[in-house]
Amino acid sequence: MDAGSVTFLRELLADTGWVERTRELGLALRTTRSPGGLMLVGTPDDEPWHLTAHLADEARLSELPQLAPTLVRWKPPADAPAHLRVGLDRIQRAGRGETLFVVAEQDAPVPLLERVNDARRTGATILALEGGDTALEGLAHDAIAVPRLGPVTFDGAQHLVSMAAGELPARPGLRERLARLLERVNGPQVAD
Description:
The protein has 192 residues and is of the alpha/beta class. 44% of the residues lie in helices and 12% in strands. A five-stranded parallel sheet has the order 2-1-3-4-5, sandwiched between helices. Helix 3 links the parallel strand 1 and strand 2 (69-72). Helix 2 crosses helix 7 (154-166) and helix 3 (49-62) runs parallel beside helix 7 (154-166). The model has no long low-confidence stretch (mean pLDDT 87).
């Protein structure tokens, strides 16, 4: 899915709340403090290769090095390049300022949930894009559940999140900042 298709999907979903939720999760991904501190992990049968690639592109295009993800794999081959040899032990070293993003359309297995819980206890931020896994959602600081029969597919949700993560929020101009200040001071305008 290219950027134009994702933009079109956003327009279709504008009134559903999906765009806002994926923007919130995208902003949460950006709070990772350093390159390599954003770890993506999936289930043993479904590693998030596609989302990892999109986030790497967003990191490069948006000049946000903290979005450069580390793909955490269940059984990385010993002869794979270094960036593809990162195993589950990386989650055990997660700490403050780092983010563990669990991408799992199916329920997360117990060994993954245990590692997620350990990472949470050591101060890592836990985010999830999941298919309705209440155990995983309970461990996450922020999660989006993608219903099987919802308005967006799991793949579509991944595209929305990656695009949102790379967006640079527009800074409000002087008029917008003054209007917000006046509204805070005076309260909202009520029509007569």
